[in-house]
């Protein structure tokens, strides 16, 4: 997947009903982790 901005990718990844592996870039891993933290705080 290519993107100029990483902030929308975590939401798109949530729509994929399959195991995922994020290899790079580290900024994407951080964005996904932040999105997961936000979701977890909603419970």
Structure report:
The model has no long low-confidence stretch (mean pLDDT 89). 49% of the residues lie in helices and 0% in strands. It has 43 residues and is mainly α. The longest helix is centred in the last third of the chain and has 15 residues, at 26-40. The radius of gyration is 11 Å and the shape is globular. It has helices at 9-14, 26-40. The protein contains two helices and no strands.
List keywords for this structure.
43 residues; mainly alpha; 2 helices; 49% helix
Write the layout of secondary structure elements.
Elements (H helix, E strand, L loop, with lengths): L8 H6 L11 H15 L3
**What class would the helix/strand composition place it in?**
mainly alpha
What's the order of the H and E elements?
HH
Largest sheet: none
The percentage helix is 40-55%
Report the strand count.
0
* Mean pLDDT over all positions: 89
| Through-space gap between termini | 30 Å
Strand fraction equals: under 5%
Spans of at least 5 consecutive residues whose pLDDT stays below 50 are none
Annotation field: number of helices: 2
Described by the principal axes of the CA atoms, the overall outline is globular
The radius of gyration is: 11 Å
Organism: Branchiibius cervicis
Protein name: Quinolinate synthase
Short summary:
The chain is mainly α and 43 residues long. It contains two helices and no strands.
